[in-house]
Amino acid sequence: MLSGVLSSETAVRMHIQIIRVFAKMKEMLLTHKDILLQMEKVEKKLSVHDEDIQLIFQYLKKLLTPPEQSTRRKIGFKRKDEE
Fold it and tell me: Full-prediction pTM beyond 0.90?
């Protein structure tokens, strides 16, 4: 950075401002990284719960639908009047 090499008052102020900006950027990135990690944790928990809720609804739908009637041929003897 040229502002660090030059000795004028403007160059020194510019150099200090650049360092402050980089420090602020680093702080913001670290802060947002923590927030991002927390959001990912929450998202993982919710996705597990979503899968569980979907599974519960699948089982409920199975319980609500009546079983299909079997079209199998009955085993056993038939009477003459049933044929």
Answer: no
51-58's contacts with Cβ under 8 Å and 24+ in sequence apart are none
Task: Extract the tokens encoding 24.
Answer: 């602020």
Amino acid at residue number 1: M
Q: How far apart are alpha carbons 42 and 34 in whole angstroms?
A: 13
Helix (H) / strand (E) element for 62: namely: helix 9-64
- The total domain count for the chain is 1
The rounded distance, in Å, linking the Cα atoms of 59 and 69 is 20
Specify if 56 maps to a domain. Answer: yes
Domain that holds residue 35: 2-62
What's the rounded Cα separation, in Å, for the pair 20 and 16? 6
Render pLDDT for 34-69 as a digit per residue (tens, 0 to 9): 777 887 888 788 777 778 888 888 888 887 777 777
Question: Could you tell me the two tokens for 13?
Answer: 């102020």
